[in-house]
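Dear colleagues,

As part of the handover before I leave the project, I'm documenting each prediction I ran so the next person doesn't have to rerun anything. This entry is a single chain, and its sequence is reproduced below.
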Amino acid sequence: MQTLYSRLGLNVIPFPAGATGAQMGGWFNKEINSTKDFDQITMRIPGLGAEVLQKFGVTSDKQLSEPIPIDKIADKVRDGTLDAAEWIGPYDDFQLGLHNVLKYYYHPGWWEPGTTYDAQVNTNIWKNLPPKYQEIFKAVCLETHIKILAEYDQKNSEKLQELISLGIQLRPFNNKILQAAREETDALLEFHARKTKLFKEVYQEWLKFKNRIKQWSKLNKI
């Protein structure tokens, strides 16, 4: 990513400095048992995930007349503007009060398995920074990244239990939904790879890693 930033002419260098870990699939006002159940739902969901769910009949918040601020999601569910919403995971979703307006909580968040946050440093400043301070900065970013990820795992595990105790219905997307979503996602990524050279480079590198890590991860399944 640092190489890509440079090629794009961005005068900053990104350093990973935080991560959410696994994310959830979102909150719904009804059970989702097939892709047909997505039809005519209006949902707060961004990016490529929104593009995929639109294939199943979802209207994303980006298609509405005005963008919805994060802290207004629950209000928009109450007034009927939204039927569903996804944000991050149990801890952050609880802060927004989504459990007060929606009953069914689905997993996994296949469109966004995790988010990485960057600390971005001006390239010119970085080059003039003494090497020892560059190493200190990189070490701090790495430690912050690991600590935030660990904190999310801890807080999400605690808040998930609280949500269940409050009567929230935890549901998995079934295999048929996940398979249909995978097919639409692969087709969408291939489309963007054909359309944009830079996207293709990132996509192919990511795909190699995904296939390689899947084989390794299978060895750890119990």
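The two ends are 34 Å apart (CA to CA). The chain has one domain: 2-213.

All the best with the project,
I.
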